[in-house]
Hints:
It is a single chain. The chain is an alpha/beta fold. It has 3 domains: 2-199, GAF domain (Beta-Lactamase, 2-Layer Sandwich); 218-391, Rossmann fold (3-Layer(aba) Sandwich); 396-538, Orthogonal Bundle (Helicase, Ruva Protein, domain 3). The protein has helices at 2-16, 39-52, 57-72, 110-119, 138-143, 176-217, 227-239, 256-265, 284-292, 309-312, 328-340, 366-371, 377-383, 400-411, 422-430, 436-450, 463-466, 483-506, 510-517, 521-530, and strands at 25-28, 34-37, 76-82, 88-95, 123-125, 147-155, 158-167, 246-249, 274-278, 317-321, 342-344, 351-353, 357-362, 386-389, 419-420, 455-456. Helix 18 (483-506) packs across helix 19 (510-517). The longest helix has 42 residues, at 176-217.
Amino acid sequence: xxxxxxxxxxxxxxxxxxxxxxxxxxxxxxxxxxxxxxxxxxxxxxxxxxxxxxxxxxxxxxxxxxxxxxxxxxxxxxxxxxxxxxxxxxxxxxxxxxxxxxxxxxxxxxxxxxxxxxxxxxxxxxxxxxxxxxxxxxxxxxxxxxxxxxxxxxxxxxxxxxxxxxxxxxxxxxxxxxxxxxxxxxxxxxxxxxxxxxxxxxxxxxxxxxxxxxxxxxxxxxxxxxxxxxxxxxxxxxxxxxxxxxxxxxxxxxxxxxxxxxxxxxxxxxxxxxxxxxxxxxxxxxxxxxxxxxxxxxxxxxxxxxxxxxxxxxxxxxxxxxxxxxxxxxxxxxxxxxxxxxxxxxxxxxxxxxxxxxxxxxxxxxxxxxxxxxxxxxxxxxxxxxxxxxxxxxxxxxxxxxxxxxxxxxxxxxxxxxxxxxxxxxxxxxxxxxxxxxxxxxxxxxxxxxxxxxxxxxxxxxxxxxxxxxxxxxxxxxxxxxxxxxxxxxxxxxxxxxxxxxxxxxxxxxxxxxxxxxxxxxxxxxxxxxxxxxxxxxxx
Length: 540
């Protein structure tokens, strides 16, 4: 990727340092080269990096086409994929208004496209009808083409695609530098297409494995085919049939209880009870009673005998959620159950026995609680026989579209499925979700309720998702933006996406993230404050 960017930047520098270069502004790219780059060309460079970060092929092609048209001023354009036999499959055709053009209505000069593919060179024509090679072409004269630019997309030394733009009304709209820019863009597209292809293959592999695991273990309610979730499901499948104590560690809202249910219903205890206790929701005085039961008169309000969860779960499974919130006294009694299966009800001297598999879950750092003398170390080792770590949603973003589809089906009540505007798709795909899957579910539930038309728009999203985008001229309905507005928004969206990606990669370490981004710590921190990005949301 760096080599292609270097070639792109070197061409820009050599062109813009000439006598005909337009007024420029200084910008330093990742390679450390200080360049004079006109605003249009800086925009293309930033857009090229944005395109390279897109992994959904359909979105990638539309986004790329819109940006090529925007930068070149073309009326319309297309991107096609080239088969091994040289056939061109026109995958996306767009106009200046960012609308799709029906392929039956989109006629192009196939002779120009063929020449670009055969010669493997960008073609840029100021007046196609007057061109000595193409002016006599039937398609050029019939379509009365004037400005035309076309460049091949090469992957692994083969032409795998083509970018084509034209304008029928304006001569000399494109110059030689436009050809260089389109070629440079095709190099960025080659990287993006290769990444998209690799991601598609990887995702299909994980989808197949996740489907096999779901079929085998009936994980129907666990949505996700990302690598991290597939690894979790594999481990669940490996340990479900054992009686090993399981500790599930994850943030709130990631689906700890779903995993506990999957473990239980795929074990030999699946025909016995599964009892759930939220240790964080019970006062200290009641947690022991809830777990182990009590005798009548054991305390004020104990008007009758009550069986505890361990007795109710005998031969089955007990799920202790938020186990880090349990009092030290209750921890001692839990440790005894784990060691020999014995316990005493509150107010009773009769020892009871049970055969219960324990699954515990926490969103706390138990090691830190141990150092603070708030959690017993011996209990930690008893619970931590097998550890399952659920990834937060921001670390498995490829699962977001699957989850959205699942929640729409869940809450749409058989109505016509609403579509999402491009802005909403971008925001949902790049938000950091501190509340994880539970928060995403609430967002989709809310949007489905509020949406009365065919499309979910920005106004249907909660305010916390829109804060980084407030004050833009797009407004709630995605109004018309000027070129400068679009440029500013594209760069801001790219910065937000990259800052979050890098923070997720480093586990929220600001200094290391700044180094990876090529910025100094102050600049990186300023941008975090500007976009209201909290490093704590990305701590591992």
